[in-house]
Amino acid sequence: MKPRQILVNLAIIAMMAFVAFISYMNGKTSMIYVENLPFETGAAAYPAFEAAMVGVEGGPPPLFLEEGDRDVLTIVGRTHVLLIEELDSNDNVVNTYRVTFKNSELKGKVVNIVPLSHGKLPGWSYPLD
Amino acid sequence: MNKKADLLKHYLIQNAVPILFIAVSAFAIPISQFSGTYLVQEMLVRLSRNSFLVLSLLIPIMAGMGLNFGMVLGAMAGQIGLIFMSDWSVVGVPGVILAAIISTPLAIALGWLCGTILNLAKGREMVTSFILGFFMNGVYQLVVLYGFGSVVPMTNPAMVLSRGFGIRNVTNLEGIRKCLDNLMPLNILGIDIPLATFLIIGLFCLFVLWFRGTKLGQDMRAVGQDMKVAGDAGIPVERTRLIAIIISTVLACYGQIIFLQNIGTMNTYNSHEQAGMFAIASLLVGGASVSRASIFNVFLGVVLFHLMFVVSPMAGKYLIGEAQLGEYFRVFVSYGIISLALVLHAWRRQKDRERARRSLRGAAGE
Question: How far apart are CA B34 and CA B41, in angstroms?
Fold first, then answer.
């Protein structure tokens, strides 16, 4: 085999490996637990939402979480846009939050939507006990 | 007048199978009572699902290797890629691409194995590749049933049998179901058209057309016409045949991935078995023969063959109150048509020889 041919073959293999890696990173699904729990920092306390609809933009139908609820959400890829609709006692939308986060920002499998929707307060994600 | 009748007879002989299918469909469609919209939708879905697999058969025919029953090897490679993709929970179009990339080296290796064996069995390629498919099916089952989960690590316990190794009978492909078909949704008059899949198929058709004009494509045609003459002309016959089978196997692998993404579920141990048989039957129904096939034959064949698949159960039900007859008819048709095409091929060759002899005599007489 000529050296040029070997180089071309190696380039093809490298390109395929790169495309496979990109595909894996962008198509990999993972499960996270989303919860609607009250949150406290040293300075302030944030009550849980009365109820909330939580879903991933362009993803499956959103989850309905009452105060204190936790459910499983499937996320795909590396970057996610979470849509959180805060509901009142009559299930009317009070506030809508659109939060973007990356897999690298997750500290664990659990995501609390209360600190997340208040500007990603430290502790919005933590490992499952 | 005699010449015209002879030409007509020749045309009818050349296209006996599609004419027969068109006649049977024309009889069965009104009886089945399906609406035109439903049939058009079904045909579009089946065209997008099956065309790639059938197109993968064209290149070995060009190289004179007949119908590549060894395409099931490619289908097996595609399924192994899909098993890995499911295990790693990769979904959507990236999942399809990943499965294709994982299975490509495997398909190349299997194609090389198949091509090497077929080079040892020149003139008996079809029966050899048919039996090779059965042999490799055994190897596939051994690997998937015993290797996966023990030698090959699996991360998703839902895919593994309860004993701890071996893949379950059914692999769920819900994550990639119709991801290609729905990538560019198009709806015309209430009929959904899987545009992205058709674009891929169209690109493949362009590839086949381009490939025919390349040096390798010309070599394949020369080898297909006469191996001895091609060899004397300096064409590496065995290498050319090997490449034809490798390309066919790799394309069959991609075809099986496209097929299964449309279905959305994979019968781990059986899905590949029927891939070759149905693809070959479709091609033959389209008017192709063991030695001659075109892109038009592929599309005509897929439409006619699957039209029969769709209408026959209902036609059977309305005709004699038994839908089971239609199901029987499906299997009967797919196997029967391959036998019929092979018989017709031998008959056509005999008739062509007679015609050539007659025309030579006529020329000598003048």
Answer: 11
